[in-house]
Design goal:
This protein is an alpha+beta fold and about 160 residues long.
């Protein structure tokens, strides 16, 4: 049984059952179930678009970052863009608590067991990590997700930031 299902069952038991509770209580049950899906903690940065919350892998929704071992070429010279992008993400996350809000997709997550989410530093309402990485040029906007970050990518490219140097 999924953790959110267990939480709903516990909340319903405390409130005295689904059918006998007033409408306001049912709304709070749904809110409690939704809150249970949010992932909060101090993650390990795997790469520029992936976080690890003690074994729960989160792909940053709407962005594509380079693999840590990827190299890029600028004017004929190679540089470790994947490692630099990872370090940029590590430095931005720092010691912040991160809250990731899963995003449901019709096609599902690209890898089994991987959650796609929009993540915020210092909790919901804080700066959005996904947008920051694209705006600083350390990740690209994923066209498969509707272009949420296209404008930020365009500005990073014009300013020659990150991968666009």
């Amino acid at each position: 049984m999924k953790r959110s299902s267990i939480l709903v069952a516990v909340v319903m038991a405390v409130l005295g059952g689904w059918e006998t509770t007033p409408a306001a209580s049912r709304i709070s049950v749904h809110a409690a179930a939704a809150a249970a899906t949010e992932i909060v903690g101090r993650p390990r940065v795997v790469d520029a678009d992936t976080l690890d919350f003690a074994g729960r892998i989160v792909d940053l929704y709407g962005i594509v970052g380079p693999a840590p071992d990827q190299t890029c070429r600028v004017e004929g010279r190679s540089w470790p863009c994947g490692m630099e992008a990872r370090w940029a993400a590590i430095n931005r996350v720092g010691r912040h608590w991160v809250a990731c809000v899963p995003v449901e997709r019709d096609s599902g997550a690209p890898r089994t067991g991987v959650i796609q989410a929009i993540c915020y530093l210092a909790g919901r309402g804080g700066p959005e990590l996904n947008a920051w990485l694209v705006a600083r040029g350390w990740a690209l906007a994923d066209p498969a997700t509707g272009g949420r970050y296209f404008a930020a990518e365009s500005m990073a490219r014009r300013a020659a930031r990150g991968l666009w140097r």
